[in-house]
Write a structure and sequence with these properties.
single chain, alpha/beta, five-stranded parallel beta sheet
Length: about 200
Amino acid sequence: MVVQKDLKIVVVEQDRERAIDIIDGLNDAGWRDVTVIAETSALARTLNDLEPDLVLIDLANPSRDVLENLSEVSGANQRPVAMFVDRSDDDMTRAAVSAGLSAYVVDGLKKDRIKPVLETAIARFQMVSQMRSELNAAKLALTERKTIDRAKGLLMQAKGINEEEAYGLLRKTAMDQGRKVINVAEALVTASDLLR
């Protein structure tokens, strides 16, 4: 897998020595655009200002609340977020997964593990993003299909025509008006609701 080396990475680490080790590990892996944030109180605003491509969080022993808060403010749905913790339990692991972290690594952060973990986090984030996009597209298609079916039903009832003729009428109207079939169907359904 080829991973971009020009990624903007933010490291959330309060301990200066550990931050230096992380930066060294990232630099060894070829990543140079690294910003360290030691204070997490304004993390969401800081990340919004920096707009990183990836966030790496190193926590010795997080509570469930801290884990969920950090994953939420770090934008785990917008970018890969990798969290390294020294200790965890089943509840923490489940919370990390449900929070959308791309990687949740127990047993702390080790310099030689940074590159493979971040590459995996990036790949997982891309896969989940694609699945999310496909799910949203499928939901939209289903919603549109239901609207078109409802519009066809309205036309069939009002004009005494069959389903094929109703769809043909929707399609012809859309072509004549330079619109999409779904737009014509939505307008028809809205007008019908208004006339009730």
